[in-house]
Amino acid sequence: MTMKEKPTYTIIGTNTVIDGPVHVNGDIIIGGTIKNNIDAKGIVRIPEGGLVDGSIRAKEVHLNGQVTKGIYAEEKIVLGVKSNFSGELVTKKLVVEEGASISGKMQVSEKKTGKIIEESE
Fold first, then answer.
1. Structure pTM?
2. Which of 36, 41, 90, 121 is the most core-located residue (most Cβ within 10 A)?
3. Along the 121 residues of the chain, how does pLDDT read in single tens digits?
């Protein structure tokens, strides 16, 4: 009998600022500020007040805060009513709630894209 792996959750609190890239093997909730790119194996959730001044690469992204550069999700992106997004958006499925703010380029397709987030300096 094998034990199922428990999901890993990382929480960045509302008063936390991270100035550098973030890599997580599970899910992450960002209530504070990240001043660089995020690479997550799971789901990235950014509630109202959360800010990513960079790009996100993840399985799924649920945004109600702000992202300034790009979102690259393998499966799905949900832009909530309070979300503020600018940059490039690439995913298979996109959900946009009424009130979401979007500025930039979007690609929504079942085809895999070759886009990779550039390494930050």
1. 0.85
2. 90
3. 345 666 678 999 999 999 999 999 999 999 999 999 999 999 999 999 999 999 999 999 999 999 999 999 999 999 999 999 999 999 999 999 999 999 999 999 886 554 444 443 3
Alpha carbon 18 to chain centroid distance?
A: 15
User: Tokens 């660089």 correspond to what residue?
Assistant: 36
Q: Alpha-carbon distance 77 to 47, whole Å? A: 14
Q: How far apart are CA 81 and CA 95, in angstroms?
A: 11
| CA 110 from centre of chain | 19
Matching residue, tokens 């194996």: 41
Residue type, 32: G
| Nearest Cα residue to 46 out of 6, 93, 55, 98 | 55
For 15: left if phi > 0, alpha if psi spans -120 to 50, otherwise beta; the answer is: alpha
What single string gives the DSSP state of each residue in 42-80?
SEEEE-TT-EESSEEEEEEEEESSEESSEEEEEEEEEE-
